[in-house]
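Hey, can you fold this one?
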Amino acid sequence: MSPEPAPSSAVRTAFGAVLRDVVVFVGSLTVLGALVGFLVRGTEGLWGALIGAAIAALFSLTTAVIMYATADKPIHVTTASAAGAWLGKMIVLVVVLVVLKDQEFYDKVVLFVVLTLAILGSLVVEMRGLAAARVPHVEPGEDPGASA
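Sure. Predicted structure:
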């Protein structure tokens, strides 16, 4: 019987699997969204789907990469990294939306649908992956009754 992996390696393994699954999901949604967008709204639908998928990829993949990279770091490093990345993503999102606001080369409805599906789907993929992970909630050998 093999020994239990250290908690940080189990967390890193879980986030690695989530990262892989998110890449596959967003990639598949990009192809499918671009195809459907093009068939429904032509070139404008194609651009709407690609922009929506790009925004979703930025958000989903950045979060998964940060969680993977900080899996073995103290919680304050992980939290600061996630909060900083969230702030950066919000700034990028606002800039992209301001630039695209008055543009006519893409379909706004297709962008909205693809972005919404990507967000919901990525959340499902992340939650499913992390719920299935076998990560202990306490360090082995730790006395929960001991005061810090």
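The chain has one domain: 7-132. Let me know if you want another pass with a different chain boundary.
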